[in-house]
Automatic annotation (TrEMBL):
<dbReference type="InterPro" id="IPR017871">
    <property type="entry name" value="ABC_transporter-like_CS"/>
</dbReference>
<keyword id="KW-0472">Membrane</keyword>
<dbReference type="InterPro" id="IPR003593">
    <property type="entry name" value="AAA+_ATPase"/>
</dbReference>
<dbReference type="GO" id="GO:0005524">
    <property type="term" value="F:ATP binding"/>
</dbReference>
<protein>
    <submittedName>
        <fullName>ABC transporter ATP-binding protein</fullName>
    </submittedName>
</protein>
<keyword id="KW-0547">Nucleotide-binding</keyword>
<feature type="domain" description="ABC transporter">
    <location>
        <begin position="16"/>
        <end position="249"/>
    </location>
</feature>
<dbReference type="Pfam" id="PF00005">
    <property type="entry name" value="ABC_tran"/>
</dbReference>
<comment type="similarity">
    <text>Belongs to the ABC transporter superfamily.</text>
</comment>
<dbReference type="InterPro" id="IPR027417">
    <property type="entry name" value="P-loop_NTPase"/>
</dbReference>
<dbReference type="InterPro" id="IPR003439">
    <property type="entry name" value="ABC_transporter-like_ATP-bd"/>
</dbReference>
<keyword id="KW-0813">Transport</keyword>
<dbReference type="GO" id="GO:0016887">
    <property type="term" value="F:ATP hydrolysis activity"/>
</dbReference>
<keyword id="KW-0067">ATP-binding</keyword>
<keyword id="KW-1003">Cell membrane</keyword>
<dbReference type="InterPro" id="IPR050166">
    <property type="entry name" value="ABC_transporter_ATP-bind"/>
</dbReference>
Amino acid sequence: MKRESPVVLAEVPAAIEVLSAHKTYPNGTVALKPVDLKIAEGEFVTLLGPSGCGKSTLLKMVAGLLAPTDGRLLLWRKPVDRLDETGKRLAFVFQSPTLMPWASVQANVRLPLDLAGVPRAEADARVAEALVLVGLARFAKALPRNLSGGMQMRASIARSLVVQPQLLLMDEPFGALDEITRHKLDSELLQLWRQKKLTVVFVTHSIHEAVYLSNRVIMMAARPGRVVEEVRIDEPYPRSPDFMVTPRFAAYARQLQDSLLRASQDGDEEPAR
Ligand SMILES: Nc1ncnc2c1ncn2[C@@H]1O[C@H](COP(=O)(O)OP(=O)(O)OP(=O)(O)O)[C@@H](O)[C@H]1O
């Protein structure tokens, strides 16, 4: 007699499914060859690769900011433009904090809620909570010009958190910061990710940042942009900065360095179409 299949343990649902999605810009640039990628709820996935490999293009397609030339992108099993049907929300964090210079930190962070017509009392409560989460509670009334680069980025992250997203898409958010500040914000981001049970897709040029933060690193190559490799970082969380001085960290960094080198060389051999 045929045996019953074993009980299937509850699978972690996919937050993101990229199904043969590719992008050619109107000027003919093949920014991304077909990509197939599944990201489970709660993962921290990093997109790493040389300049021009299509990291931002892929992230913007996941956000629904850019339509693929062909293929599909699903968030919680629905096309990206029907995210509201899933009861989930996403937020996008850009490299530049893009704060309104004339408005206080508090008003900047409240902006998405004002635009969505959230009542003032509720909005203020959510802003206060977000400012505490990013360590800016004392600077609610400050103007952006009086904040350091790292603090401005914290304000930008707070602005993304007030919409209470389940998915955070971050395009080189700490790329313009000095190394010490970047490490600090990386650690804070990991805490937020765990505390809020977020799914994060994070674009970076930094191998060290990718190893420190991610469950999984997606390596991409340029000319034309494509996914070439995937590396799992099997290191438990919470990860402290001490992880960065371990032989395991060095081994992962080396593996990614080799992969990045291969990805860069591949691109030189294959001309863009
Ligand atoms: N609007 C556009 N029109 C035409 N080509 C574009 C456009 N945006 C990006 N590209 C090109 O598409 C390719 C992929 O760009 P993309 O910005 O996605 O790469 P990236 O990996 O994020 O690069 P970087 O690391 O430098 O930010 C590049 O060759 C880029 O020049």
